Amino acid sequence: MERKETVREFLQTLLARKGDHQPFSDDASLLLSGRLQSVDAVSLAVFLEEKFGVDFAESGFDQEKMDTLNAISTWIEESSHDGQ
Amino acid sequence: MTAAAEPQSAAPVPILAHFSFLRRFRLIPRLEQYPRVVALAQTIVGKATILALFGLGLDYATWLHYLHNPRWKVQICFLVAVTALPKYRRILLTVGTLLWAFGIWWQWADHPQIIQAAISLVIAAMIFWYASHFRNSWLGRRPVATLLTGFTLTVLLASYLPRGGSVRTAAFDFLPVAGAYLWFLAYSLMDLNSKSRDPFRLQLGTYQPIWGSTNTPFPKGAAYLRRIEAKTPEQLAVAQLKGVKLLAWSIVLDLFLNYVFIPFVHGYLGVPLYEFAFHLSLVRARFPWYMGWASLISEFLERMIEFSIFGHRIIAVCRMAGFLALRNTYSPLSSRSIAEFWNRYYYYFKELLVDCFFYPAFMRYFKTWGRWRLLAATVAAAGFGNAFFHFFRDLNYIDDFGFWRALAGFQSYIFYTLVLSVGIGISQMRQRNLENKTQKLSWIRTRLIPPLCVSSFFCILRIFDYTYKRYPISESFRFLAHLFNLVS
Questions:
Q1: How far apart are the first and last CA of chain B?
Q2: Prediction pTM value
């Protein structure tokens, strides 16, 4: 739950940088809807690498897996299980 | 309204609050925001009206340019079917796409290429099957890289086949058709990582789909279609209303371009076409430097409007089919950075490069590059990926000149992609700072000067955006020098 809130805060920061202060639900599309651009996706990826140790080298970066807050949380969860 | 329906830049801009009366103005009203209209669009009468309006619009848009193109008739039949049977949308998309491809599209070439298209799709099916069943193989682990390497080697080998021989003729008959499906297959292979991936029969519907495409997949692949597909009657109504609006907008742009802009600029003002001005420079004919600027700027604007018209029409049909795709072109002239322009100008090409080159390069190969990681991955995508796409799109040059001479003739476009990618990379690195600073600056310094600078960059770079391999890069530089009155 704490992880999810950390990611939510980061996503809010990314959106706020673009002047987008609209709220978003846990299932709201952020990347595929165009609210966040590829450069934001990169910031998100670097954040997940540094904060949660997620490694995209093998799995690749799939926008679908990073599109919503819920999807990101699930992805972090799965990655941490894989790493154990 | 679904999240996917939101515009690419939905964020309100504080400075524009002063001009809110302008922001509220819409040449084409936001029909999808009126609940009564959305409710009506869900009834049989509403659906029939929308389809009839859209059919008339497609007919008119086609009449404006391609008098004998029957595509709109096939498209409207398809739209009637998917509107009546939304549950079977994806399979109808496959059926419609195949009927269009084999019934009309591949028969339109200089000589019918149905056999080549059929072989291409069979090979695509085999590659998809192999990659999905042997995940530990090269193709399974690095599907896109393996696919592109395989295609490159095939083309290279074909270029060494004896000229005039039947094998070479057959190879260069087949390879452009296979190349037309290459990037669609790449998206299918990327979809293999998805838990809810589509079977190949549904992937087929995205291969040169019935709503239109180039070698760039519109709008991306099956994974994206699943995400943006209308799930409820209300979402379908909104998607279709937005489809009608986008088609109407493309017609407005078309009328403006062909009945106002071109007659005024090239007729009344007498500005020569860019190709003509460039030709004058080639044959060392004298012409005023400001005429060169005028032809370059008009070419830049015309091309942008043409891109919008062409992309809007494709996405309009896609939306009518129940997929709420983003526009391909979205107000590029309002971009405040090079990266933003690149994103707004040809969205689906940019997405293709991001998915196939940028993410793999960023996530896998440049992890230790620190602050240069972003720039390196951008050069890999907008530089290398961009050049790769265009070089292997125009295979006729490789057939005519041979592989290495064709590559040498590509120097101007390689230079273009290099400058473009470095520009985008630096722009991305600066973007964060700009976003923080611009809130304190005046409208002129945020909304006027940056878009002008960005547009100027792309306008001048247009001189090198040249893929036809007929002239050396020195001619592009000579034209550039002429613009600044440095050569006569």
A1: 57
A2: 0.88
